[in-house]
Structure formats: C-alpha cells, structure tokens
Amino acid sequence: MDQSKAYISKEEKKIPINDPSGKWSDLTLLPEWSEKFYDVYTVRKHGKWVMLKALKPEYAGEPKFREMIEQEFETRYNLAHPNIVMVNDFEDIPGIGKAIITDDVYGYSLRRLIDEKRLTPKIVHRLQTQLLDAMQYIQENHIVHEPITPETIIFTEYNENLKLINVGYDQQSKLSTHDAEADIRSYGKVLNEVLDHLPTSLPRLRRIAEKCEKNDRAFSTITDIHLAVERRNSAQIYYLIIAFIAVMVVLLCWLTLR
User: Fold this and answer.
1) Are 92 and 52 a contacting pair, CB within 8 Å?
2) What whole-number distance in Å separates Cα of residue 132 and Cα of residue 126?
C-alpha cells in the first residue's frame, strides 16, 4: 500500500524535489501538522517513507532559528519511547534546507479524528494510558516543550497506537513547577475536548479532565493523574507500602526468634 495515502487532505501539496542522487523523492508538505516555526513533510528516503521537520522559509535564513532547530534535534535525538516519534537524523534536504528526520507516523492527528467524528473507545483508552506514559517520560527527562494539543497527538492507522510528534526543544537539569503544571492543564484540555465529542457520558473521566484543566492542584504530577485514572490515589499506595513493610518486619522477627 502507498503510505502517502495516510496523509490525504485538501491542503496537502506535492513539492518537486531536484535530487540527482535519487536519495529523496515524493516530497509532500503537510500543513495539517505544521508548527509555529516549522513545516512538516513526508518524503521517501532511499524509497522508505520518513518525515521531515524544517524551518519555514521566512525563518530559515536567521541564525537564531537555525540554532533553535539544531538544539531541538540534540534534545530529541536520545529520546526513546514507544509513544514518541523517533528522531533519526539531521540532514540537508534539496530545496528545503536542514531538517530533522523522524520515523514515518502513517496515521491521523487527534484533531482530524475529532473533526471527522472518528473517535473510538480505543482512542479514549490510549489517552488515559499511552499519552500519560509519554508525558511522564518527557517530564522525567526534564524536556521543555510546547503545549500538547490534538494537533500534536497522532494515532497510527491500523492499531490506533498513540504517537507524540512535538515533544520538546530543550532539556533542563530540573523541570520547573510551571512547566509541570502546564502539562497537567494541557492534558485536561485535550481530554475535555475529546469527551465533548463522544456520544456517551464518562462522568469519572470528565471530573479528572476538569480538575486537570482548572489546575486546582488536585494533581501535582502526571503520576497522580495515572493513579486517579486507575481508581487509586497516592495515600492508598503509601498505606500499602507501610503495611507490606510491617508484615516483612514481623516475619523477620519471627524467623529470628525461631
């Protein structure tokens, strides 16, 4: 199957590419996935589909933006998570300039699935599991990034696995409280929008989404949201650990006195 069909939209634009080496072919601009400073493309590299992230033409000539894309490549290159699009290289593409090369996503953005009324129970489940897993990984690695939105969440075409395509541009020694809180708000906003477009009501999930978006400090970390989704809380986990330790101490004392 021609994978380019996974990206069909009215706004797509095929772009001629002059590459005598034959390394690059079938370059297509994907406006649906564009970012503030970047254009996103799908292209064949040695016949294999990959994606490109390159500076928009109006920024490509400015040193500060060239430094920005280089820093993003260095930040993302060592990230490895099943729900984050992998960065493979940083290359000069004919007619495009320097671009971050990533795996081909081959799927649809959450924005498109919402607009086309194609949400499924599996997608809702992925938002409660895979999205939280990816966000927790980003926080554990102290990655600074733009807000997560339906435009940056992709679901693969066949198995509806979640992939994040815009996961960070800088790495710090410690993530600020502001950045952590912004992630929680972003998660709540995404989840609320999805719930708005479902044909059924999910009251418990709605309460979690509203607490996240309102940032009423009900959740201080992504782990807290994980626990709430799983119908647990930090206190319960704490008491279970204490109970386990107490049992082990009693058992150890009993073995010692035998």
Assistant:
1) no
2) 9
- Please, what sign has the CA dihedral across residues 120, 185, 231, 143? positive
- Contact yes or no for 21/56 (Cβ under 8 A): no
β 13-15/24-29 pair status: antiparallel
- The DSSP call for residue 85 is P
CA angle 42, 131, 182 (to 5 degrees): 100
- If DSSP codes are grouped into helix, strand and coil, which group holds residue 25? strand
**What pLDDT digit, counting tens, does each position of 59-92 carry?**
999 999 999 999 999 999 999 999 999 999 999 9
- Residue 111 CA to residue 108 CA, distance in Å, equals 8
The per-type count for the chain, helices as H runs and strands as E runs, is: 9, 11
Looking at the whole model, is its pTM more than 0.90?
no
